[in-house]
Amino acid sequence: MHKSYRISSLGDRAVIIEWEQQIGGDIHGQVMQAFRRLRELHLPYILDLIPAYASLTVVYDAVVLYRQQHSYAGEKIRELIAATLDGAAEITASPPPRLLEIPVCYHPSLGPDLHAMAESKKVSPEHVIELHTEQTYTVYMLGFLPGFPYMGSVHDLLVTPRLKQPRLRVPAGSVGIAGVQTGIYPQESPGGWNIIGRTPLRLFDAAAETPCYCEPGDQVKFMPVSLEDFREMTHYI
Fold first, then answer.
1. pLDDT of residue 92
2. CB contact burial 30-57 (16+ within 10 A = b; e otherwise)
3. Number of domains making up the chain
4. Rounded distance, CA 209 to CA 194, Å?
5. Is the pTM of the predicted complex or chain greater than 0.90?
């Protein structure tokens, strides 16, 4: 991997690997490649790997690392990361990303900001829906709420700032836009994204073997469904 990153400490139990701070497929591709390489090591002292838009946080057990390596944990983990990411011999082909087709109902009762957004853009609600569903989005990171996928980037015409006054209650499954990003609320929550639809899918289940429906690196395509189909899916999912 071309060395275009830097590694910094986050306290005494984590480090962060940072690339150029921008939202884009090239940078995020490097993040996910680093994520996969470190994950494939299966090291007992690496406790968690948290990818984001242009960074990867590595949480480690300093005691276990010291016992195995007999050296200062912070320095050793940085050496390990650099050796892993710069090791040309260890480069393997990246697996193709998952493509998730997520049904969304864009009915005004479920997308309270759809018409206002369309009016502000001087287009029809149908055109907003068309633009939102024609894109294939990359899941850059999960955050804010457990399982909340931050995805990008929306069509230029759909770029819209967050609401000036956030809502106190946004229903689970709500699909929104904030800036160049689109996302889905996994649980009911306060929030300031522009809500244009809702999915019947459950985005987070703490009791499941894989709690989060989406994972960083996934590709997402929104599939428009009618209100009737949405209600039927909600009943059966």
1. 57
2. bbbbbbebbeeeebebbeebbbbbbbbe
3. 2
4. 31
5. no
